[in-house]
Amino acid sequence: MVRARKEIHMAYQEMYESLVQRLDEEPKEAVRRIRAAAGMSQGQFHTAYGVPRRTLQDWEAGRRIPPAYVVELLARAVAQDLTSPSA
C-alpha cells in the first residue's frame, strides 16, 4: 500500500512537472497545453474544472490573460486527475 502510494506520488510529480515546465511560455499556450494533456475539449474542461467556457475561450485566444496562480492550479488539478488510480 505504501509503495503504491509512493508510485502514485512520483507519477503525479512527473506529470505536474511536465505540465509546468514551460510556465514562461505565453499563458494562452500554457492553458491550451494543459487542456490538451487532459485530453478534453474546451466544453469538457469547463465542466470538469469549473472554468467558465467563455473565460477559457478568451484565455486560449489571448484576449484575456489568466493569472499565473490559476495556470499552476489547473496544472496541479490535471496532474492529480491523470495520475489518480481511477484515471
Secondary structure layout plus pairing:
Elements (H helix, E strand, L loop, with lengths): L1 H19 L6 H12 L3 H8 L3 H9 L6 H16 L4
Helix pairs in contact: 1-5, 2-4, 2-5
Walkthrough of the structure:
By secondary structure, the chain is mainly alpha-helical. It has a single domain, classed as Orthogonal Bundle (434 Repressor (Amino-terminal Domain)), CATH 1.10.260. The protein has 5 helices and no strands. Helix 2 packs parallel to helix 5. The chain starts with a helix and ends with a helix.
Write down the overall geometry: globular
Low-confidence stretches: none
Biggest beta-sheet profile? none
Number of strands: 0
The arrangement of helices and strands along the chain is: HHHHH
Counted by DSSP, the helix tally is 5
Find the structural class using helix and strand composition.
mainly alpha
Global mean pLDDT: 82
Write down the Rg. Answer: 13 Å
What is the helix fraction of residues, given as a range? over 70%
Distance between the termini: 18 Å
Assign the CATH architecture. Orthogonal Bundle
CATH class: Mainly Alpha
Provide the β-strand percentage band: under 5%
And the CATH topology?
434 Repressor (Amino-terminal Domain)
Number of domains: 1
